[in-house]
Amino acid sequence: MTLLILHTRTASRRKHFAKAVETAHALGHRAIVVVEEPSWEGEYVDEVYTAPTGDLRATVARCVEISQLEPEPIAGVIAFVEHSVPTAAAVAAELGLPSISVDTAEKSRDKLSMRQAFEKVGISQPRFALASTVEEALEAAESVAYPLVMKPIIGGGSMFVRRVDTPEELAEHFEDIREGAWAGFDYDPLFILKSKYSEGILLEEFLPGNEISVESYVQDGVTTVVAVHDKPTPMDGPFFEETFYATPTVLAGATLAKVEEYTALAHQGLDIAQGATHTEFRVAPSGEPYILETGARLGGGPVYQSVLLSTGVDMVEVLTKVALGEVADVSVDPARVRHVGFSLHFGEQPGELAAVEGIDTLEDRDDVAEVMIYGKVGDQIDVPPRVWQAQGHVLFTGDSREEIVRKQREVNETLRFRVR
């Protein structure tokens, strides 16, 4: 039998690939990848196939063709990047394999449909509206209220997300964000929603408070929260690049209980009955969590390794087993939970990457579990809000939250991306 990994290229998923292939091989299965422009993926899998992954229908047709070319039947389909989730669901449906539904996969990427689904199940969330023109935006802002956040409908990684505080700022920045919110994701299979929404974007109420992310697994409709990451660095705008995660959370009591309740409700609203999810909240000073979004996938970048280091739960192994028809037991032993943090790093400015300083110093530290640089010297890089992925990350451990915060400052002072 064969595991098919449907992929949108990003170097931060190397560890995901390695574990998925290791798990598939241990179960006696082949592992293949379908990607538009192969690069490093061939280092891990048994076969690399190409497909125009920005075109959902064409990719489904190509995967059907691949299923006929493969020496073993395809037994499961998984995706590690959010842009690939709807296509993976469509491929699974076409091949008769277990998966979330196509409708659920699309709702987990279409942020307007997601907001409407959350509304139906009664989860606390920001006020929101859709706007296609400056005039519509200014009118909608009267009910959404300032400050507000402009964001793409199919975006990811906080790319083309911006806070504005006044009608003047909204008028000044609306068109630039609206244009980028579609042009910046023209490779996305859901780019076809551009005409449905008249090239519009979301306006959402800006909520004060700290952000968290929740990593969960759903099996037979039952949610297990595996880990909660805090984002200790304030994210107040105007842009919302994510630079620091730490787990376990400092939340407790009624607030944490409500986070877990709302996470399960989000799965219910989106009809996610199986698989991993990544849910983000803003927690108000009152302790009330407000849901931002839920992805029907693992958290991006080093979230996978952070959860593994902290809890001992290998979410990629779990997902691979389930995709191949095996039973997976997901449980967290509180006695095993460790303090883990990771930092995400961007260039100083747009331009050509000239050097990355501090790698050797960090790799020599016993408390640094991983330093990963996604590109190479000579690459052209950009900065938020025009990128959805950082240029690298550092994963580290500690004995307390205070120690994790201190180490994050040390990492930031050590790792530098020089641009010319």
From TrEMBL:
Name of this protein: ATP-grasp domain-containing protein
InterPro entries: ATP-dep_AA_Ligase, ATP-grasp, BL00235/CARNS1_N, LAL_C2
PROSITE patterns reported for this sequence: ATP_GRASP
Family annotation (SUPFAM superfamilies): Glutathione synthetase ATP-binding domain-like (SSF56059)
Domain ATP-grasp: start-end pairs: 115-324
Pfam families: ATP-grasp_4, ATPgrasp_N, LAL_C2
Sorted UniProt keywords: ATP-binding, Ligase, Nucleotide-binding
Entry-linked Gene3D superfamilies: 3.40.50.20, ATP-grasp fold, B domain (3.30.470.20)
